[in-house]
Write the structure tokens for this entry.
Amino acid sequence: MALEKAVVSPVRKESVLERFGLGLAAWSEKWFPDAWVFALLGIVFVFIFGLLIGESPEKLAIAGGKQFWVLIPFTMQMAMIIIGGYVVASTPAVYWFIRKVALIPSNGKTAIAWIAFFSMFTSLISWGLSLIFSGLLVREMTRRLDDMDYRAAGAAAYLGLGAVWALGLSSSAALMMATKGSIPPKLFEISGLIPLTQTLFIWPNFWTIVVLIAVSIAIAYLSAPNPSRAKTAKDFGLSFETLDMSVEARQKPGEWLEYSPFLIVVVGCILVYYLIDVFRTSPTGALAALDLNTYNLMFITVGMLLHWRPKRFLKAVTQSVPATGGVLIQFPFYAVIFGMIVGTGINDWLTNLFYQVTTQGTYPLLVALYSAVLGVFIPSGGSKWVIEAPYVLQAANMHGVNLGWVTQIYNAAEALPNLLNPFWMLPLLGLLHVKARDLVGYAVLQMFIHIPIVFFLCWLFAQLIPYVPPIK
């Protein structure tokens, strides 16, 4: 079929932008080291920078080493987001919904816009859920649509991570700042607690989400190739069967509890009751009770109940664990960078720099630009925020810029480099059986259009939100 299509269809000439995106992806695959290597390079860079501004090597080493384990609670919380997202997306109920959704589009271009919408919508619930949900949705659509460009569909499935995930409920930075136990003590001295009612649940964040989703869907639809030029899954030599989450039959009498829903129901009811009580008794409102711990417990509980049997739940957990490896090893080394910054004079030096080169009006633009550029080299919203937050928020205090919106400026800008750096694309690539270079061309197209929109919205809303002193 691919041969017949090549004969009857004209050869599609790639646009300059597509070639540029594919070239960047190819260069990245060839020359970019593993993300953990970037963490090591970051430590070396900050160490040298500290020496240049007059810090002693002994003080830098001690300050960094003392903080190595400070992010362990946050590291586990990030790993649980990945596990929880996979566990929920692979449940029979959610997979049934994915299959029903895949039946709605009637052609390839509409399907790509549909994938883009669900990728971004689910990312507002959980970025871990988004990657698995949208990847499975692409696979299901390839089984009934012969005119859907597989590259554009894969890029659309990644839009949640490249557009709005950090503005949603699984935002690493926002949830960290709303969870006192997750905020490093030295950062808490600067920022205090920033509840979600000052970050995720404010009207500027809502309008930013609406604008980015609308623009992204339009780009996905308009840039999708016509059927005669589409490169389908079959052209990649791929075909997909339905997701199999079945487990082998019980072999021994002692295994009966692993196959029985009894324990799942009992434990699930206990956890549901606890969660209801957490939201009901929160002294500052139900929304304020939503922090990283509560959020992750909700996903694990839902995953348990929807998988119904311990054996099937554990199978899903086992399948999700490999995706957590990068988070588990990288975050402690990012904590070393954090320690060298806040434990020496680097923090004050950077704070004064951010303050002196900006005004209250231009400060939001500098934060957005700095966060986007740094995100190319540190592709992790949570760990990068730990590095940036001390001097970014301290300078915001000095300028009188709302700390909650500064957090959201970071979140909106931090997502942009995800469209270029394939680090968080890995779970999706595994599901789709393609390489990053196959998707990045269309992702880069989205990135270039998003940049001016994100920067303008970050600047505009910063002028409209009043400053609120830190909550200690």
Observations:
- Residues 437-462 form the longest helix (26 residues).
